[in-house]
Amino acid sequence: MNTTTVNATKLAGFKLPQLSEVFNGTLVSGAIRLVALPLAGILAFLLLWSITAQNIDTSLGKFPGPAAVMEQFNSLYDEHQRSRNKEQAFYERQEKRNAERVAKDPNYEPKVRAYTGKETFLDQIITSLITVMSGFLLAVVIAIPLGIAIGLSKTLNSAINPIIQVFKPVSPLAWLPLVTMVVSALYATPDPIVAKSFLVSLITVTLCCLWPMVINTAVGVAGIDKDLINVSKVLRLPALRHVQKIVLPASVPMIFTGMRLSLGVAWMVLIAAEMLAQNPGLGKFVWDEFQNGSSNSLARIMAAVLVIGVIGFLLDRGMLVLQKLVSWDDSASQ
Amino acid sequence: MSVLLDISHIDMEFPTPKGPFTALRDVDLKISQGEFVSLIGHSGCGKSTVLNVVAGLYQATRGGVILNGKEVTEPGPERAVVFQNHSLLPWLSAYENVELAVKQVFGSSKSKAEMRQWIEYNLDLVHMSHAMHKRPGEISGGMKQRVGIARALAMQPKVLLMDEPFGALDALTRAHMQDSLMEIQAELNNTVIMITHDVDEAVLLSDRIVMMTNGPAATIGEILEVDLERPRHRLELADNPLYNQYRSKVLKFLHERHSKPDVPIKKSAQPKSSSQQAAANAKARNAQKEAVEDAA
Ligand SMILES: Nc1ncnc2c1ncn2[C@@H]1O[C@H](COP(=O)(O)OP(=O)(O)O)[C@@H](O)[C@H]1O
Ligand SMILES: [Mg+2]
């Protein structure tokens, strides 16, 4: 009697930590965590969305559910294809016409005119992406050297910090009229290389996403391990080499944290700026659809909202991948 | 023997929110070429401060440091430092860490190939050739400390300054590193100042042991000449009466100064505050160590 109990416990004890089971267990739970749970979340969201949508009536009809939005994605894509075909046809016609006229009169200088159709949804996406990246890169070029300088010099920090603290919380919408007026006044060439509206959006984005990068870079630089600074002193590294070999690599994790924050801010700011200033891009698309007020408008706006979200997410992931490539620590694990 | 390094009557005061804090008073020491000197004393007495003044990282409030007849005013590679926490650049491999130093010191006098050879030679001296392309995060504490030593040696310094270089290592690794250091010193005849609070380490490695009194206003209490034949072997020394005599002399100094702080010291400091200071510093040191371990 007694022995059997002992044996049973022993057996149970042996059975519990079976390696293959544990292994399978972690594999299964990993798969659940990575695939099944997010999928379940998305499905639940879609369900909730379609139920809620049916119960909301607006002046433009029912609030669009997932199906209506999907339909608009298709029609937006079709519109884009049609527009591209038209464009191609336009250029083909023009080329043919020019060729005929040159054949008749060899002295004729062929004129090439650009196609001026309405921007499609895809065009707007690309415009927004180019604008946000340009504004962001301009901010990077300004913010990182500035942040390093502030981080290295306590004097400069004391001098500039109040300015940063005041400008940091300013909404893009407040900058926009000023930027618009200043660009109009200063950028008054008859034959501009880039559109004025592009410049306005870009500068607004730059102004708003400058601060997280400046602050994070400065904090990173000021917080470099004192021992590493001492190494540099003992080696008598010249100032520029000190920045290049010690300061910059040591603050890469903080710089990238700032860059990720900034890119997120940049994307949000851009959409708002485009809406308000009627500058080409996704923001304008949303505004135009809102003004348009057709029965499809809400579904199209919802499609734009989803695209804006997905692009924002992808931009952040992109920065994370970049951060992982250049980081020497594990700060990029999030 | 001629004096290479003259630490001449230095005082060190730190400004603190509660007024100036006198860490060192009248520390005076002359060191010859090729000599191995260790500084021993309780935590927080001011050993690192002495080393930092010699390194040029701190400027003495009074007195000065003269190396080869020239006063030290700023840090420089002729006074290479092995820091307590290895201080390797974590984004560079062991090789690149040494390379940074070698390029800075020999960039104009050695060719590329010569520099590569020199870097590899120094990594070989500390037995790190096999892992020279690994980053600090991928090697053990002892290996990191070795690379730190290789980096300092590669600068071919006139004086090698080491701040508790083996303090964070386990006993076995530490013994190994001590043997390596003795070998290297026998080969290169470096002048070394090493901080330690390990009595055996001090006796084993040093030509002279400089014992510091407790702070504030710490100074040199006693200097012990260690007259043991080189090369030294730790196992043979264990039964050597002279060795044990040196050992107990140092122990006695540390013990008496610690347990009876009111024993008349040359320039007496406030006894109560000094022991409190030591305790506070020990605490701070522990906290720091933990932080370091957490970070690792
Ligand atoms: N930069 C500093 N500012 C103020 N006090 C300091 C500074 N560096 C060291 N001290 C003080 O000087 C004393 C000696 O410190 P330190 O040389 O680090 O001691 P040890 O290396 O012997 O443990 C301590 O009381 C410490 O608090
Ligand atoms: Mg110390």
What does the model show?
- The complex is a heterodimer of chains A (334) and B (296).
- Chain A is mostly helical and 334 residues long.
- Chain A has 2 domains: 66-118; 121-326, MetI-like (MetI-like fold, Orthogonal Bundle).
- Helices cover 80% and strands 1% of the residues of chain A.
- Chain A contains 11 helices and 2 strands.
- A two-stranded antiparallel ribbon of chain A has the order 1-2.
- In chain A, helix 6 (172-186) packs across helix 9 (239-277).
- Chain B has 296 residues and is an alpha/beta fold.
- Chain B has a domain at 3-78 and 157-260: P-loop containing nucleotide triphosphate hydrolases (Rossmann fold, 3-Layer(aba) Sandwich).
- Chain B is 42% helix and 23% strand.
- Chain B is built from 9 helices and 10 strands.
- In chain B, the strands form 2 sheets. In chain B, strands 6-7-8-3-9-10 form a 6-stranded mixed beta sheet, sandwiched between helices. In chain B, strands 2-1-4-5 form a 4-stranded antiparallel beta sheet, covered by helices on one side.
- In chain B, a hairpin with a 2-residue loop joins strand 4 and strand 5.
- The longest helix of chain B has 25 residues, at 271-295.
- The model of chain B is unreliable at 259-275 and 277-296 (pLDDT under 50).
- Chain A binds chain B through residues 225, 227-228, 230-231, 233-237, 241, 245-246, 249-250, 252, 328-329, and chain B through 55-57, 74-77, 79-81, 83, 85, 87, 89-91, 100-101, 104-105, 135, 137, 155.
- Bound molecules: adenosine-5'-diphosphate and magnesium ion (MG).
- Residues 47-48, 163 of chain B line the site of magnesium ion.
